Amino acid sequence: MRRQPKQQRSRLIVRDIVQAAREHLNENGLEGFNTSAVANRTGVSVGTMYQYFENKEQLLDAVSLTLAEEIKEQLDLVAGSEILSGFRDFSRVLISSIIFYVGSQPLLIRALLSSDAERRLSVAAEKIEGHFTDVFRNYALQHHSELPNTNLPSAVFVVFTSILAVTLRMQIIKKPGIDHAAITDMLVESALATVFGSNYEAP
């Protein structure tokens, strides 16, 4: 971002610009994306928008980080649920929520992956990963005082990377016959095996 907003009014303008960019992407994809349309949708001049975002890539970065924050909020909702019946149930809801959230806005996700995707994905994924690791680890330790896997951070890294890779691939490549529920179950069992060991029966 070119200029960090310090006053409340500036922060609201930036929020509205990012939201407008997100809506525009979700409706038109990257091919139909242009900054003038975003400015018009926001109700500000292009010059005002460029005070905060130097170019289209910076604006796409901001949209990507906003999505990352929303996924973090989803993770917190799962972690705070009082109706989960064990670690397997927790893992299933956690993984399902990520798959559902990403899948609910396919045009937007594809647009963000189409332009400078490697760098943008790395930044957003790192932001989500740290939070995912904390949520996953805290729940595991809360319900299991001793974990078979002593290198939990590495195990959770593998789990998160697997979930992210599968979820994004499901959006990029549409294959007939893919059962999302079955994929979720497989990811859950893989996560449990990675954290607890293949012979460990987690509740």
Walkthrough of the structure:
With 203 residues, the chain is mainly α. It has 2 domains: 1-54, Homeodomain-like (Arc Repressor Mutant, subunit A); 61-196, Tetracycline Repressor, domain 2 (Orthogonal Bundle), CATH 1.10.357. It has helices spanning 8-28, 35-42, 46-52, 56-79, 87-103, 106-114, 117-143, 152-172, 180-196. α4 runs parallel beside α7 (117-143), α5 (87-103) packs parallel to α8 and α5 packs across α9. The termini are far apart.
CATH architecture of the largest domain: Orthogonal Bundle
**Helical stretch count?**
9
Structural class: mainly alpha
Average pLDDT taken over every residue: 82
Spans of at least 5 consecutive residues with low confidence: none
CATH class of the largest domain: Mainly Alpha
Query: What characterizes the major β-sheet?
Result: none
Shape: elongated
How would you concisely characterize the structure shown here?
With 203 residues, this protein is an all-alpha fold. The chain has helices spanning 8-28, 35-42, 46-52, 56-79, 87-103, 106-114, 117-143, 152-172, 180-196. The chain folds into 2 domains: 1-54, Orthogonal Bundle (Arc Repressor Mutant, subunit A); 61-196, Tetracycline Repressor, domain 2, CATH 1.10.357.10.
